[in-house]
Design goal:
- The complex is a heterodimer of chains A (412) and B (238).
- Helices cover 52% and strands 20% of the residues of chain A.
- Chain A has helices at residues 2-12, 16-56, 81-92, 126-132, 156-162, 207-213, 234-245, 268-304, 306-314, 319-355, 375-401, 405-410, and strands spanning 59-63, 97-111, 116-124, 140-143, 151-155, 169-175, 181-192, 203-206, 223-228, 257-261, 358-361, 364-368.
- In chain A, helix 2 packs antiparallel against helix 8.
- In chain B, the strands form two sheets. Chain B has a six-stranded mixed β-sheet, sandwiched between helices.
- The longest helix of chain B is centred in the C-terminal third of the chain and has 18 residues, at 177-194.
- Residues 231-238 of chain B have low confidence and may be disordered.
- Classes of the chains: A alpha+beta (412), B alpha/beta (238).
Amino acid sequence: MLKLVQIALRNLFRYKRRTFLTMSLITIGVAFVLVFVSVTASFKGMMIGEITDSMLGHVQIHRRGYVASLDNLPLNLNLAPPAIRNVEEALGAIPEVEAYSPRLKFGGVFSNFVESTNIRLNAVDPAKEWATVPLLPSRIIEGDGAIEPGEILVPELLAKGMKVKVGDIAVVVATNEDGSVNGYQFTIGGVLRSVTGPGGRDGYIHIEDGRKILRLQEPAVSEVAIRLHRIGKLDGVVARLEGALGPQRNAQGQPVFEVHGWTKLTPFSNIVRMIDVMTFFIQLMLIAVVLISIMNVMLMAVYERTREIGTMAAIGTRPGRIVSLFLVEGLGLGVLGAASGAALGSLAIAVLNILRVRFSFGRQEGLVLNSGVDPSDILTIGLIVVAVTILASLRPARRASRLDPIKALRQV
Amino acid sequence: MDLVVAERITKDYVNGKVSIRALDDVSFRVGSGAFVSFVGPSGSGKTTLLNLIGCLDRPTSGRLRVAGTDVAGLDRLKGAIFRGRHLGFIFQDFNLIPVLTVAENVEYPLIMVRGVEAGRRRDKVARLVEAVGMAAERDKFPDQLSGGQKQRVAIARALVTEPDLVLADEPTANLDSHTAGLIIHLMKSMKDTLGTTFIFSTHDMRIVDEADVVHTLRDGALVESSAPGAGVGGESHA
């Protein structure tokens, strides 16, 4: 085998210019795909991070039917204390869960005593909410970054429209579950930068204030937002939660809970899917580049070395050995190209990081692209190149092994 | 015992509707250890005959046994295995593998054809390279060698597997007469040393005298057999 590799490599460097050109093509292709995959993965990661870490969380649990009625923020679909305990027990049994935050969501009317407007509010336990959506504090552009009882964080656009600032007094009026109306006076504790996506323009108050304004007799919640240690475990955690909570039924025999991963809660998951599709097509292009260039080179090699192949066959080299020789040769070309492409791609990514490329996403501007080289990406791209190389070399190799030695020996 | 037995061999090449008879009813025997030459003008059928004996082609009719095997019935794979076990080849154009050194070219059949282990390989290659007088050039590549040197390497490559029979197609055609004489003497001395049977084709009458048996082909027919060298086992039947 070692000799086979030695012969194959020497044959590769026998036609230095051609080998160099083909290898360059593969190198550039691999480097381009690696940079594309890393940059899009980085963009995707940041986009997902912006959405999940500043408002959604990775997973949410609601009472069944709540998400379908989310626009109305229905109070009759809140989770009661026994259901909350069941959820907390289920979450406690899953080590992938890093934090969770029970939220009470409702709609109300915000008044600055001169004019009023609608507002969507999240009543939260600040410590739990901060742990679950750690980018939320960074969205507080005015104020001390806390939610004390009696304070309200209002979205930027509402603050501008209603001409309120930190320290001003405002009133929130909300309809209770029984149809009565209740008002509560708040101090503006902060102004929140709006972000793109569901919940990106909601206000925040303390959960105790939420219960007071809604006059709840027991601590009900509308949703439980969950943060995982690793977002890659999303599907597994959703499945485990569904397994744990799914069997619980209400009096009508219907499931009590519904569990959603972030992808089911925002249309931005479609953009993520589009990025994945684009990555797939870029990989297809790489496959085409490698396939065509290797096949071309190997067919040329068979044509140019017909006489040599005839000699090998004549002196008793078995067809399988001749196939192996050309496969190893093509493989060598692919592996060298993939390795140098991975090195070049990693270098290009490092340069991009040094240049600190900035981009905008939704209303957020100046986000810095921070791409990383994922070893699994290099491995995947490398395996694709190797597999395609073998595929591309197979036909020329078989052709070489099937040459008629007499005709091959006659070739000038 | 006869190493090669050819009985009424015919070989036709068909090109479209035209059939050309390259060998016509050829019969002969070659004994083990013989040094046999097929002579004749270009197109007389020498190369065709060597291709048949070398299992590179099949006769259209007739019976051909080499080393006790009916080679007419061998398929591509079995033919390759048979050649690797029993035959060695020397070509007119030397046909060394350009990316391999002298020693590596000689070693090639032991690795790629026979799968001989490294220790034995080194000994055999060293012996053969020394025997053909190429020890000083063992690390040179073919493009650094003269024609005569290349053919010496080709002889060593043909003999390294200790074949029953070496087939040499016009081995001196691309060499000057002095070098051609040296190559023929080398082949003969190797035959004497190793006891290997040699069959070669040539139209160079200056080297024919070295053969034990000379078969003359003309227009595909074996027209004459003679024994100028009266060699060992050189029996023939026209």
